[in-house]
Amino acid sequence: MRVGLVCPYTWEVPGGVREHVSGLAEALMDLGHEVSVIAPADDDAILPPYVLPAGRAVPVPYNGSVARLAFGFLSASRVRRWLKDGDFDVLHVHEPAAPSLSLLACWVADGPIVATMHAAMPRSRALHAAQPILASALEKISGRIAVAEAARNTLVEHLGGDAVLIPNGVNVNRYEKAEPLPGFPGTGGTLGFLGRMDEPRKGLDILLAAFSLMAAERPQLRLLVAGRGDPDEALDQVPAIYRDRVVLLGQVSDADRVRMLHSVDVFCAPNTGGESFGYVLVEAMASGAAIAASDIDAFRRVLRGGEAGELFSVGSPERLAEAAGRLLDNPAHRASVAAAASVAVREFDWSVIARDVVRVYEAVAPATGRVAVAP
Amino acid sequence: MTPMTSIVVVAILAILGVYISWRAGRLDRLHARLEGARFALDAALVRRSSIALELASSGLLDPATSVLLAGAAHDARSAEENREMPESDLTRALRAVFSQPDFRTLLAGREGAEELLTELESAAHQVFLARKFYNDAVAATQVARARWLVRVLRLAGRAPMPEFFEIDDSLAHAGDGGTGPAADIPHLTT
User: Fold this and answer.
1) By CB atoms within 10 Å of each CB, which of A33, A211, A306, B29 scores lowest?
2) Which residues of B touch A122 (CB under 8 A)?
3) Considering only CB atoms, which chain B residues are within 8 Å of A98?
4) Given pLDDT bands bounded at 50, 70 and 90, which one contains residue B182?
């Protein structure tokens, strides 16, 4: 199939939607499809060969923060030309309600259009004001996908209609092999945490409390933390005698992120909520880590009800300490949980996810012909 | 007390009374001016967001620009407390929309476009002017209320201390504002 993908956010700044579009594009090409992506980017930006720049993105206030978007008649005419040259079997737009290229593509195209909703948009009042404008462009979409339940709810509540749920993909291969960080995991056991240190919902304070409980009985146990935040604020929560066993890496690169995941015996996800999917968990599973995670809906689903990782009651340092302890003290149990995770994570690999997406393409394509430029 | 001293005391008291009531009257006038300026600013902000919303739903623009503008205008209009942020965001959205290359040229000749753009531009000027005059009145009132006599005698009564309204309302984008004879008046397009 010839597939045209539209990314609304600038290609030059990393972000969830952009990662998704590039992962999907590459997986579709691996499956033998022809793919072209259009995204806001400078004309002289260094881009993969399958990405066409639609011109510089403009920073504008949108949905409570500043987004870099492309809009206006000139962007629309670039999209129109791309559609004409591309002669696509299916047009796949991402985040079509964002005031950017995806919405413009819906406006100028006719034919089979698939849309993927990514974000949950709590600021529904602004969306409500724009509803009549959105409606005429969005009603052309014949197949809708949501990456998570929260994104689907946004769609149902504000724009009407329903969507099929197809989660975010991960390149499992990219996580499978990596050199652990120097000196890790060591012999005394290492716990790991990945995420913002200062975001309470990520639950680092719960893990620090659990670590303090465990450190007394396990004289060599260490804790490895990667993520942004104030190091002193985190260390203050650990008794002084254990502080030198807590290693704070700060924000790490993508490569070090994978190395960090290979450096721990037990990966802990003490999140208290607000996770719609659990990307961090999927990354840890792909890296072969044994996992102790909060028993929240998203995590329970990803970990297959506890088969692919230990679940503990949300917000309890004692239960986390017990769960992590079970994995640390029993290498055979740890290995079997990690092995189950490696199998379970395959369902989130882009090669599998992309096949599901192609099924959606096939469902809409024959009914409506090829993608054409609207008169 | 001699008759002479009583006359002097009465005269001093009378002069003091006249002076205090004159000061109270001045403060009252300042508060009235402030009230008027506040009203004008409110009206200008409401007018600006209404016309922005009208432009967004006019069908003249592409849908992406329309959604951007509608969202910003709606946020500005529905904000109750802390209006400064959404109003600044609306300014930034307007700036981004109007600074698209050839924006006016592309809209030229479309039914009603020129009128709407001109009206929006004049509404944006009005916000700029009204905010300047309002902040001016706030400054004058704050100075007057900080005076010793006003504080001791509580001449301002229970009227709350007015606060400045600080938003980004500069519509000329960097590089083409600040010079020229009309530098004080911002323009959406040059």
Assistant:
1) B29
2) none
3) 67
4) very low
Task: Tell me whether residue B10 is in a domain.
Answer: no
Residue of B nearest to A137 (CA): B63
Domain boundaries, given as residue ranges, for chain A? 2-169+350-373, 172-348
In a domain, B50, yes or no: yes
CB-based contact, A96 to chain B, within 8 Å? no
Taking CA–CA distances from A136, the nearest residue in chain B reads B63
A69/B68 CB distance under 8 A: yes
User: Sorting pLDDT into bands at 50, 70 and 90, what band is B116?
Assistant: very high
Q: Does domain A2-169+350-373 have CATH number 3.40.50.450?
A: no
Residue numbers in B near A132 (CB within 8 A):
57
pLDDT, residue A44, reads: 87
Give the side-chain half-sphere CA count within 13 A for A299.
25
Percent of residues, chain B, with pLDDT higher than 90: 39
Q: What is the pLDDT of residue A130?
A: 77
Q: What is the per-residue pLDDT for B186?
A: 53
Question: What is the identity of the amino acid at B57?
Answer: S
ipTM (interface predicted TM): 0.70
Handedness of CA A23, A27, A28, A32 (dihedral sign): positive
Residues near B37 by beta carbon (within 8 Å), at least 6 away in sequence = B130, B133, B134, B136, B137
Determine the Cα–Cα distance for residues A340 and A337; give it in Å rounded to an integer: 5
B68 to A125: CB separation less than 8 angstroms, yes or no:
no
Give the residue ranges of chain A where pLDDT is below 70. 120-127, 274-276, 367-368
Q: How many domains does chain B have?
A: 1
Residue A153 is predicted with a pLDDT of 81
Q: Which CATH class is domain A172-348?
A: alpha beta
Q: Do A72 and B64 touch (CB under 8 A)?
A: yes
